[in-house]
Amino acid sequence: MSDATYGFDTLQIHAGAKPDPTTGARNTPIYQTTAYVFRDADHAAALFNLQEVGFIYSRLTNPTVAVLQDRVAALECGAGAVACSSGHAAQIMALFPLMAPGKNVVVSTRLYGGTVTQMTQTIQRFGWSAKFVDMDDLDAIEAAVDDDTRAIFCESIANPGGYITDIRAVADVADKVGLPLIVDNTTATPYLCRPIEHGATLVVHSLTKYLTGNGTVTGGVVVDSGKFDWAASGKFPSLSEPEPAYHGLTFSETFGPLAFTFHGIAIGLRDLGMTLNPQAAHYTLMGIETLSLRMERHVQNARKIATWLEQDARVDYVTYAGLESSKYFGRIATVCPRGAGALFTFAVKGGYEACVKLIEELKLFSHVANLGDTRSLIIHPASTTHRQLEENKQRAAGADPEVVRVSIGIEDADDLIADLDQALAKATA
Ligand SMILES: *Cc1c(COP(=O)(O)O)cnc(C)c1O
């Protein structure tokens, strides 16, 4: 099947899947197995040498997970994808083949709080470091790049403010300096934005959010565009030089546009072990089948609720990029023409105290540290997801102490507005 000829709604249901060859099962079975029987000793040897592609052991590959990988790769217009155990695992899996002790990554100041912590503190244990820059300042990105920089990293629609990154402009800087651009597309999903079409090299996702869609799974995925020349600069020896663990095989020569994907499985999953389990892959496949329908409703509800909040006297400001008042409104047409997502913050008059009261008074909105659920969710980022950051970094990330972050669900928008109305009344009384 030539997936390229099908539309998004078709691909989200069919890409990567076919009836089970043994039983005819129409839905993708959950292959709940750790290992796979080899045909004979030669078959086993060929698989272990990467001379033949197949299933050995579920830390590396599993048929249910493989369908998910193919499906997400198709939706993102990538050459291949590797699923893993969480969004944070996906970020490490994306950086791992590129980095080495002493190397750095240039990252956006506007990121999910957990990513800021991962990039500020934890990656130092590997001898890696991150340099934070405002991705709207293209000169600053270029100035931050040095001989040891190995990648540029940003979010398409940035958590928590819902700010839109001009991916094409950042990709042009990455091209100019010869580095891969990694885009975290979690909050947009491939339905709203496809970073590879704007020049991104790699796309990472937390499957935990909209792709599964109902808060039942923790998972992640790395998608490779297949377009980056890993051998050109000599900066990516893991991909372009002989690999001792596979008898001197060179990933970029042997696998071409699938080099990054094969490395992710054969080295990344094999040795880091951040594997997605087949049950989680199954839930995520079920979620993806309705991705476009859910995202349309998420966006429609978010637009209605943000518009209502913006005109309300008890609210200071709303950051939703789908509002004409947003400085990012002009980027929707090029970056995410189907809408600016459903994640944004708003400032309650009365500051921190009023935010806390609002959250306590809401009945339909759940107070949780998650986003991209069918249910509407709310959190106060400065005291939770972005708590580890100093106040100036919180503000740079869009997690100002006086704002709450909402992830608008797919319930009736009028019910959500009524809930916000009653809670705002109590919070600002
Ligand atoms: C949640 C999230 C992550 C981390 O994903 P987990 O699945 O929780 O590890 C990364 N980036 C963004 C934008 C997120 O929202």
Characterize this entry briefly.
One of its GO terms (cellular component) is cytoplasm. The chain is of the alpha/beta class.
Could you explain the architecture of this structure?
- The chain has 429 residues and is of the alpha/beta class.
- The chain is 37% helix and 14% strand.
- The chain has two domains: 3-287, Aspartate Aminotransferase, domain 2, CATH 3.40.640; 291-427, Aspartate Aminotransferase, domain 1, CATH 3.90.1150.
- It contains 17 helices and 14 strands.
- The chain has a seven-stranded mixed sheet, sandwiched between helices. It has a five-stranded mixed sheet with strand order 10-11-14-13-12.
- Helix 8 links the parallel strand 7 (181-184) and strand 8.
- The radius of gyration is 22 Å and the shape is globular.
- The model has no long low-confidence stretch (mean pLDDT 95).
- Bound molecules: pyridoxal-5'-phosphate (PLP).
- Residues 86-88, 112, 114-115, 155, 159, 184, 186-187, 206, 208-209, 218, 220, 371 line the site of pyridoxal-5'-phosphate.
- Pyridoxal-5'-phosphate (PLP) binds at residues 86-88, 112, 114-115, 155, 159, 184, 186-187, 206, 208-209, 218, 220, 371.
- Belongs to the trans-sulfuration enzymes family.
- The modification N6-(pyridoxal phosphate)lysine is found at residue 209.
- Pfam families: Cys_Met_Meta_PP.
